[in-house]
From TrEMBL:
Active site: S150 (nucleophile), D294, H321 (proton donor)
Keywords: Hydrolase
Domain of life: Bacteria
Gene Ontology CC terms, in alphabetical order: membrane
Record-linked NCBIfam families: pro_imino_pep_2 (TIGR01250)
Family the UniProt entry places it in: Belongs to the peptidase S33 family.
Record's keyword annotation contains Transmembrane helix: no
Native species: Flavobacterium fryxellicola
Entry's Gene Ontology BP terms: proteolysis
AB hydrolase-1 domain: residues covered: 73-328
Protein name: Proline iminopeptidase
Length: 351
């Protein structure tokens, strides 16, 4: 009889414990799309945030999706000079997990102000811009996750190196920590995989500074981008990606990156960027994402995860540079697992 009473007591305690935990999760889910107490209800989550710069005050575009007081992911797009539109695949995954995320067009990008002043396009100024966006949105180390893809990964790493005290988690998607090593990978590993005739034609145009030749971009999209940027025939690319490329600000892109994703060209300002020796100072939980067919070396991204003090590597075996689109079955479960484990205090590096 005493044994039955003891078993019943244990079962009751487990049941009550589960009941106590569920309302917390259910409350976040129930209020996820509730804008009634927010000041951006009328705009559907859109806020134009004023940014102070050495050249005056400008506005940047943000759009918050969902409500979750514990997980808020600010998305840093690539380029530089592309748009938040490259992240639109997230709409199909994050809401179901009650993850709050914030689209954001950096200064100079399509939905934000686009001042014509190259002195604004520096890593340091972009870092301060992100910090102003964080403050304006009320993000802090109890909820603030920063996620950057490609150039956005550069910006995310630079921000974390200065402001990691403000972060709950960091996600570096498809970006190496060294531009010279990125260039070397493009030239020594990926370029030789191309048809030699196509490669020579591209290299000849680059040598002749013939970047405005329509043939240059045509060849890149057909023979390089569909292999290493987004592994689909271009006609099948998601409309959001096509729209993102249409909205690129070429002034910002060429000034910082060069003329294409086929390595950093000319005197682009990112050409010598390298923060490899500083990564070991990062203590914030970090997820580094690499893909088999990426323009970036996946082994380098694995190295990043081991170099930071609290890192994990996510490998996308079917993905390229935009692996959220060509390997979503690996990409999104890995990102969501990271966010949930950090939030629950269950994150362990390397697993």
């Amino acid at each position: 009889m005493k044994l039955k009473v003891l078993i019943f007591a244990v079962i009751s305690m487990l049941f009550l414990s589960n009941c106590q935990q569920k309302p917390k999760d259910d409350s976040i889910k129930a209020n996820y799309l509730d804008f009634s107490k927010r000041d951006d209800q009328l705009t559907g989550g859109i806020k134009m945030i004023p940014i102070k710069t050495p050249k005056g005050t400008f506005e940047v575009w943000t759009k918050t999706v969902g409500n979750n007081p514990k997980i808020k992911v600010l998305l840093l797009h690539g380029g530089p000079g592309l748009t938040h539109e490259l992240y639109e695949a997230f709409d199909g995954y994050f809401p179901n997990e009650s993850i709050e995320y914030i689209y954001y067009d950096q200064l100079g990008s399509y939905y934000s102000d686009q001042p014509n002043d190259n002195s604004l396009w520096t890593n340091a100024r972009f870092v301060e811009e992100v910090e102003q966006v964080r403050i304006a949105l009320g993000l802090d180390n109890s909820n603030f996750y920063l996620m950057g893809q490609s150039w956005g990964g550069i910006l995310a790493m630079e921000y974390a190196l200065k402001y990691q005290k403000n972060l709950k988690g960091l996600i570096i998607s498809n970006m190496m920590a060294s531009a010279p090593e990125y260039n070397a990978y493009a030239q020594n590993v990926l370029a030789p995989q191309m048809d030699p005739k196509i490669l020579k034609e591209l290299q000849d145009m680059e040598k002749n500074n013939d970047f405005d030749n329509p043939k240059y971009s045509e060849l890149l999209f057909e023979y390089y981008y569909t292999e290493h940027v987004l592994r689909m025939p271009q006609a099948q690319w998601p409309e959001s990606i096509t729209r993102c490329f249409k909205h690129i600000n070429p002034n910002v892109y060429v000034y910082m990156q060069g003329h294409s994703e086929f390595g950093i060209t000319g005197n682009a300002t990112l050409k010598n960027w390298d923060i490899k020796d500083r990564l070991k100072t990062l203590t914030v939980p970090t997820l580094s994402i690499g893909s088999k067919y990426d323009t970036m070396d996946p082994e380098h991204m694995k190295w990043i995860a081991n170099e930071v003090q609290n890192g994990r590597f996510l490998f996308c075996p079917n993905g390229s540079h935009l692996s959220q689109y060509d390997d979503p079955k690996t990409y999104f479960p890995g990102v969501i697992k990271f966010l949930k484990e950090v939030d629950n205090g269950e994150f362990r590096k390397g697993n």
